[in-house]
């Protein structure tokens, strides 16, 4: 694997760090992209500070970023682009601003498209693949998640459409995780251990997903058969099939 690279966006978050660790341990050169610095940069990992939203709005900036990616790749093939970065702006329908929508769609939907487009030659040359990290909110959501859920539904749709459009040139798949037990999720339940336990029990599996488990699945998809194409795979503890009615 030493001559292959994987580019991971949103690398500084809980899921991002698990992805970086998984692919690095498997022998890939990892290009870790985020606007925030990585807590730790291990062997075989190169951190690249990038404003994803700006790569959508500013073509000149995007061209510069992609040139840096190519320089960093050198003679390594780009085995995978993992579009993991996301923003989650919550609010009622009456409250969401145009700026909220623009940032949500730029980071969660348009950046995955333009990064796929911008690095298509490198991906195709290496018989590589694109893996989009979508969300259970693409199918099932709740109040105040209008912008986020819409962006993730569109990202899952983009995955299927790109697979058809690119054909056999580059595989494109997506994962739709439910609750993943990251430090950020735990921080949101600070002082509310009962609520955190209830969230776990809502999943038929009786637990939340681990970032490391999601990362292992991501690598399996990246290294999977070429017939695995255009798939949107749930990692949700069975909650996508659960109907919560009053007792």
Count of individual beta strands: 7
- Fraction of residues in β-strands: 15-25%
Helix content: 40-55%
Domain count: 1
Tell me what the structure shows:
The chain is an alpha/beta fold. It has one domain (4-180, 210-236): Rossmann fold, CATH 3.40.50. 44% of the residues lie in helices and 16% in strands. It contains nine helices and seven strands, in the order βαββααβααβαβαααβ. It has helices at residues 14-25, 52-57, 59-73, 98-118, 120-125, 146-166, 183-188, 193-202, 211-222; strands at residues 4-9, 29-34, 45-49, 77-83, 129-133, 171-177, 232-235. α1 (14-25) packs across α9 and α4 (98-118) packs parallel to α6. The radius of gyration is 18 Å and the shape is globular. The N and C termini lie far apart (53 Å). The mean pLDDT is 95.
List the helices and strands and how they pair.
Elements: E1 4-9, H1 14-25, E2 29-34, E3 45-49, H2 52-57, H3 59-73, E4 77-83, H4 98-118, H5 120-125, E5 129-133, H6 146-166, E6 171-177, H7 183-188, H8 193-202, H9 211-222, E7 232-235
Parallel strand pairs: 1-2, 1-4, 2-3, 4-5, 5-6, 6-7
């Amino acid at each position: 694997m030493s001559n292959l690279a994987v580019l991971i966006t949103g690398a500084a978050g809980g899921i991002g760090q698990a992805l970086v660790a998984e692919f690095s341990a498997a022998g890939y050169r990892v290009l870790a992209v985020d606007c925030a610095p990585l807590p730790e940069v291990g062997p075989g990992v190169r951190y690249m500070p990038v404003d994803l939203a700006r790569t959508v709005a500013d073509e000149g900036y995007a061209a510069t970023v992609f040139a840096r990616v190519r320089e960093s790749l050198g003679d390594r093939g780009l085995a995978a682009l993992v579009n993991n970065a996301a923003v989650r702006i919550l609010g009622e329908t009456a409250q969401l601003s145009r700026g909220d929508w623009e940032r949500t769609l730029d980071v969660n939907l348009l950046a995955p498209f333009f990064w796929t487009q911008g690095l298509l030659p490198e991906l195709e040359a290496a018989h590589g693949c694109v893996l989009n990290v979508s969300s259970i909110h693409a199918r099932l959501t709740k109040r105040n998640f209008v912008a986020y859920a819409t962006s993730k539904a569109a990202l899952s749709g983009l995955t299927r459409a790109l697979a058809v459009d690119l054909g056999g040139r580059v595989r494109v798949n997506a994962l739709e995780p439910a609750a993943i037990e990251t430090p950020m999720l735990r921080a949101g339940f600070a002082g509310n251990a009962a609520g955190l336990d209830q969230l776990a029990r809502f999943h038929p599996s009786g637990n939340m997903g681990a970032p490391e488990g999601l990362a292992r699945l991501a690598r399996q998809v990246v290294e999977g058969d070429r017939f695995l194409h255009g798939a949107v795979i749930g990692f949700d503890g069975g909650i996508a099939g659960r109907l919560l009615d009053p007792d």
